[in-house]
Write a structure and sequence with these properties.
The protein is α/β, with parallel strands linked by helices. It is built from 13 helices and 6 strands. Strand 5 and strand 6 form a beta hairpin. One of its GO terms (molecular function) is DNA binding.
Length: 298
């Protein structure tokens, strides 16, 4: 694909542009796409890649930041008409993006999505309780994709980006000084067949492999315990040197990151209350093996 740069358009990437016909609506100039058409972000990324341009390079051409290009490609920022004009000129497109512009929607990214990974990266100790699913730091790619695909309104583009972000967070275990990681799982998190039999077998095999690491402990809270202090929801505690301790609280709408000392203390007490009901690590490992066998693990 030939890359053409319109200098006048590039200077006006983020401001209004007079090239549009004032007598016609955007829908009239560029009819909306039929159902199942790729999203604006997917088309932009495909055209940019075909042109051999990085996000930085395209941003330099159209006078926009790399982060803005990335946000638009991931569906996290709604593109403007002037942005679209500049990008189409730079990539030699002919209305491909304009046809998609009327139907462009933004997949909102909650604040915690950007806050919590930074907390994890700096933590020396992480403790988590998960009553429903395997913790994100221990999820396989296919398990994570199945979880995220169930999110209302999730697009394929958003799912792939979210999976990539989740897997990237797991790099904390590859540090020279990885954090101590203490995971409490309700037994039902092992029994729920997320993604189907093959996905669960792979996920439980991964849990068993992770328990072999000296810095990772996985303990199961059995169902026959009945009510525990953890039935109100999952959470994660992170302790760091040089910064306040943090807690991440799960919720149906969005997660919440809190650094208030009293709130962290209360959640820490809740973790301890749940922990007393958990099987020891070696018994928990045996239980994971037994459940995995039901999914075909040999």
């Amino acid at each position: 694909m030939t890359v053409r740069v319109g200098t006048d358009l590039c200077r006006h990437c983020l401001c209004a542009c007079s090239a549009e016909d004032p007598g016609m609506t955007l829908d009239e100039q560029f009819p909306p796409p039929p159902p199942e058409t790729p999203t604006y972000g997917v088309v932009l990324k495909s055209a940019r890649t075909a042109a051999g341009l990085s996000q930085v390079a395209l941003g330099n051409i159209v006078s926009c930041s790399e982060s803005l290009i990335g946000l638009v490609e991931r569906g996290q920022r709604k593109p403007t008409k002037s942005f679209t004009i500049a990008v189409e000129s730079a990539l030699g497109l002919n209305g491909d993006l304009f046809r998609l512009l009327p139907n462009t929607r933004v997949m909102s990214v909650p604040k915690w999505f950007s806050e919590w990974p930074t907390v994890e990266e700096n933590a020396h100790t992480i403790r988590t309780w998960q009553p429903l699913v395997v913790p994100g730091l221990l999820q396989t790619e296919r398990y994570a994709r199945a979880i995220l695909a169930a999110e209302p309104g999730a697009t394929e583009q958003w799912i792939e980006e979210a999976v990539e972000t989740r897997l990237r967070r797991q790099s904390v275990f590859e540090r020279n000084d990885p954090p101590m990681y203490w995971a409490l799982l309700d037994e039902c998190a092992l029994l729920r067949p997320v993604g189907g039999k093959d996905v669960m077998r792979e996920q439980l095999e991964h849990l068993l492999a992770m328990t072999e690491r000296p810095n990772i402990s996985i303990q199961v809270v059995p169902l026959d315990v009945g009510a525990t202090a953890g039935l109100l929801g999952g959470f994660t505690l992170a302790e760091s040197d040089g910064m306040p301790d943090h807690v991440y609280l799960d919720s149906a709408g969005q997660g919440t990151v809190i650094a208030r000392e009293e709130a962290v203390r209360q959640v820490s007490l809740r973790y301890d209350a749940i922990h007393k009901w958990a099987h020891p690590a070696h018994v928990s490992r045996r239980q994971v093996c037994e459940v995995a066998a039901g999914y075909g693990f040999q």
